[in-house]
Write a structure and sequence with these properties.
By secondary structure, the chain is of the alpha/beta class. The chain has 18 helices and 16 strands. The chain has three domains: 2-115, Response regulator (Rossmann fold, 3-Layer(aba) Sandwich); 135-297, 3-Layer(aba) Sandwich (Rossmann fold), CATH 3.40.50; 302-430, Helicase, Ruva Protein, domain 3, CATH 1.10.8.60. Strand 4, helix 4 (84-92) and strand 5 form a beta-alpha-beta unit.
Length: 431
């Protein structure tokens, strides 16, 4: 479903669009230009309806800034006071069209459809808050789209810091349960003796300090989605009780006389190899199969270096805005440094580094000397060394892809996330 951002200081306007177009758009409202720009950096949108007259940043100023940052994003201006002059100004500033208030819904629908490009055949929708163009990430996005419409259990696998909770939230937000609770519970963050009561809850008097009834995470997520993060750390004794919840759709709080029915979707994630744990006898095989109806594997960042620049540039804009810094960009040498790093902490490590850079640097261009030392790659390495390092790393990846694809250049280019022509040029440069 495409996302529509409605920017208007009248709070009922977003509600009106949701009522009229909620079946074809996921509608979000922003009260002013500043909120709109922040939302677009964070979430993105497919179409913006922008009011001309707003307090603070007016519509034309917001339009020009949107066009500067997101030149391909279609914007339609809305106004109750349109004149030929304002209409011409809006079109010159980059608006695709403008509409008069109060709206004629048929005319509004026609204008909206006229500015939206048709979705390309086979296009993969990018979930909100997630970035990636590598084949592995596109496959993750495809799975999110397919499973979101169901209530099937999904097991999200990946190293620490790869964004497993983001995948879970994307599944929830794209599902019919998106207006209900999303509850994330880290099974590794709670002492074992408290884990059962935190998950399943307890009745008053169930034990000495149980002075009142406490609902567990299953009840708190009722109607919505529960993410069991790091489910591989759940003690063996509790796994049988979790399996019973999944099979009966009821929970039994400590001290309860009868089970409590729950209607929710359960997602699970872990950085552990659950198959190995099953073989070792520390994770129940029946629970594994119940959780892994649809497995989703998140690749580590080192396996998709083509996504580093995309993520780094997004995070740079995001943190610059959050910390009130001006426009910033990476120099080619700095980006080569980022792309050459192995990122053992994955996206979380990259995010932390970019925020640190933004906080400590006030200039426009982030260069190599502004980057913290990354395991020997960074401020201590000259730009010439970085270029050599990047070239060597890239050539190694190309050779691996060609070998994996039996020399087929088209398939190798797809694996690397580049065009076949780009691969041919890189191979020529390697001769």
């Amino acid at each position: 479903m495409r996302r529509l951002l409605v920017v208007d200081d009248e709070p009922n306007m977003a509600w009106l669009f949701a009522q009229s177009f909620g079946k074809v758009f996921r509608v979000t409202g922003a009260r002013n230009g500043e909120e709109a720009l922040a939302f677009l950096e964070r979430e993105g949108a497919d179409l913006v309806m922008l009011d001309l007259c707003m307090p603070g940043m007016d519509g034309l100023t917001a339009l020009r800034e949107i066009q500067r940052r997101h030149p391909a994003l279609p914007v339609i201006m809305m106004t109750a006071f349109a004149t030929v002059k304002t209409a011409v100004e809006a079109i010159k500033a980059g608006a695709r069209d403008y509409v008069m208030k109060p709206f004629d819904l048929d005319e509004l629908r026609r204008v909206m459809n006229s500015v939206l490009p048709p979705a390309p055949a086979g296009a993969v929708p990018r979930p909100s808050g997630m970035f990636g163009e590598s084949p592995a990430m596109l496959e993750v996005f495809r799975k999110i789209e397919r499973v979101a419409a169901t209530d099937a259990c999904v097991l999200i696998l990946g190293e620490t810091g790869t964004g497993k909770e983001l995948v879970a939230r994307a599944i929830h937000e794209s599902s019919v349960r998106h207006n209900r609770p999303f509850v994330a519970f880290n099974c590794a963050a709670v002492p074992e003796n408290l884990l059962e009561s935190e998950l399943f809850g307890y009745e008053k008097g169930a034990f000495t300090d149980a002075r009142s009834r406490k609902p567990g995470r299953f009840e708190l997520a009722n109607g919505g989605t529960l993410l069991l993060d790091e489910v591989g750390d759940m003690p063996l004794g509790l796994q049988a009780k979790l399996l019973r919840v999944l099979e009966t759709r009821t929970v039994e709080p400590l001290g309860a006389i009868r089970p409590v029915p729950v209607d929710l979707r359960v997602l699970a994630s872990t950085h552990r190899d659950l198959k190995d744990m099953v073989r070792a006898g520390v994770f129940r095989e029946d629970l594994f199969f119940r959780l892994a109806v649809v497995p989703v594997h998140l690749p580590p960042l080192r396996e998709r270096p083509g996504d580093v620049a995309l993520l780094a540039n997004h995070l740079l804009r995001h943190f610059a805005e959050r910390h009130g810094k001006g426009f910033q960009t990476f120099s080619p040498a700095a980006m080569a440094c980022l792309e050459a790093h192995a990122w053992p902490g994955n996206v979380r490590e990259l995010r932390n580094l970019i925020e640190q850079v933004v906080v400590l640097w006030d200039g426009v261009t982030v260069d190599v000397e502004h980057l913290p030392d990354l395991a020997g790659i960074g401020a201590k390495a000259p730009a010439s060394s970085l270029r050599q390092l990047k070239a060597g790393y890239e050539q190694e990846r190309i050779r691996e892809a060609l070998e994996a694809c039996g020399g087929n250049r088209t398939r190798a280019a797809e694996m690397l996330g580049i065009s076949r022509r780009a691969l041919q040029l890189k191979l020529k440069a390697m001769e």
